[in-house]
Amino acid sequence: MSATLSTGVALVFVWLGMVLAISFLEAPLKFQAPGITIPLGLGIGRLVFRALNAVESVLAVTLVVTAAVADDWSRSVIYGLIVAVGALALQVLAVRPALSRRTAAVLADPENVPAQRSRAHLAYVACELVKVGGLLTAGIALLL
C-alpha cells in the first residue's frame, strides 16, 4: 500500500468515525441526559459542531491535497471525496448560518422554544447522510 493510499484510508475513516460518533450518537443522546434543556443542549451543540466542522475542514483539505499528489486513486475515491467535501461545504456555508440564527433566537428567549425542528436542522442531517455516503464510498474504494 502506497503512502498516499494509507494516508487516505486513515483520513477518510477518521473523518467518518467523527461524523458517526458526534452527529448520530452524541447529538441526539445529549438531549436525553437528565437536566439538559433545549437551550443548554443547543449551546453545547453549537460548540461541538463548530469544532467538528473545523476538524472536518482540516481533514477535507488534507484529503484533497493527498488526492492531488496520489497516482493510484480510482475515480470512485475521487467522486466519494467530492460528495463528502461538497456536503461539508454546503453545511458550513449555507446550513450552519441558518442554524446559528435559530440557536441565537432560542438562547435569547429560552421560554419560547419552537416545538418543531427547523428545516435547516433537517438539511444539516441530510448533508450528514450524504457525507457519510461519500466517505464510505471513498474509504471502501481506497481499500479495494
TrEMBL record:
Keyword tags: Membrane, Transmembrane, Transmembrane helix
Membrane-spanning segments: 6-27, 47-70, 76-95
Protein name: DUF4149 domain-containing protein
